[in-house]
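Both lines are quoted verbatim for reference:

——
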Amino acid sequence: MTACIRAATPADLAALTALLASASLPVADLDGQRIHFLVAEIDAQVVGVIGVEALPPEGLLRSLAVSPALRGSGLGRQLVQALEAHAAHHGIEHLTLLTETAASFFNRLGYLQQSREQVTDAIRATTEFRSLCPASAICMHKPLDPARSASGISAAAPR
């Protein structure tokens, strides 16, 4: 089965929230206008989600989740790659993320660990950075290649 990765719409909010909650990821601030979500869909069902809190030229990678039955299938990697292209297309030059469980996964995709003190003020001011993600979470960073920007995916924050 091949997943279709597309921009999330307001109609996807319940499904993407449920998927994030089932993965124990933050859902308290999903109504923010700066969070762009992409979803992976198979047979009209949301089976993966990833988001970016856009603060150009910076972005905070938010909440990668894949349905348990599809973990290990490469869908997570596809979602990250689609999000990186989407972010670069929207003027984001660097992505930062916080993770408690997926540091090795993101490291394989080129993200490097950095101290929280190295994070820009814009990222530090986000709700996820300030309060939703624990201080024990690993902070990681990756510069994006603007040549990889995608024009085929545009995302709207679900409301």
Notes: DSSP finds five helices and seven strands in the chain. The radius of gyration is 14 Å. Confidence is low (pLDDT under 50) at residues 154-159. The helical segments are 13-22, 75-89, 103-108, 121-124, 127-132.
